[in-house]
Amino acid sequence: MFASLPLTALRAFESASRLLSFKAAAHELSVSPTAISHQIRTLETWLGIALFERLPRRVRLTESGERLFQSLHGALLEVAQSVDTLRPQQSVGSLTLSTTPAFAALWLVPRLGRFYAAHPGINLRLDTHCEVVDLQQDASIDLVIRYSLDNYLNLYGLCLFDECFAVYGSPEQVALASERAPTLISVRWHNSKLYALGWQAWCEKAGENWLQHASPMREYDEEHYALQAAIAGQGLVLASNILVSESVSSGLLVPYRPKITVDGAGYSALCVPGRERHPPVRAFFRWLQEEAQLSGHVL
Fold it and tell me: How many domains does the chain have?
């Protein structure tokens, strides 16, 4: 059944497609770039179609190449995982997760002790760069946790949280807020589409005229800086109920008029289809679901 399949060429194609570079694929497979180019040409001749557009200093998949990569990558990943499960002495499981610095610092890391206790054989590496990872191209990342309004039709996903934004402050600042207009703390969002006019929306719903009275506004680049400012008593912060949950549980922050909220986006855990069956990934998905249920913010 499989005798005629050009397996060497298919492996070269998968690597070159994922990395979008013949040179990088050659380095990954320990062969020369010329060998990779030859294997791709052989595969294109065998199929009778072009898989790549050769552009100055780079390559780009054709529509047919993209279709082949989507199915081939998942198939090879499943084979690799099946083979790994058959090893007599399996190495310690490893897992690489990409997420935002704020989610890692404010929600994930405080809870990771429970994951390590339940799965001592899994090593977790966190990647907290702000750049969006293309899971179809970067095989070094097992899964991501993303905050977005978008749907991810080509990825396996688990919706984690029903998020909203509310106002929080130290107990002293919340007590003073009913007497005078407070200093307002906000986040300078990298993606304005997610939450463009947060304080204005909240004040309109709450009937507060703080913005008209020119209350001071303090802006930070990251949510964890804004929360630390609020904990230190520098004002009231408009924050995600997900990211503020640990600070509220410990009493460092309390809500101000908790019934007044503004809708946010959603957090989802995502991976390439097929990778969710890899034991470390499966264990982490299950743990995330349990933690989401414990937090009381499940979708």
Answer: 2
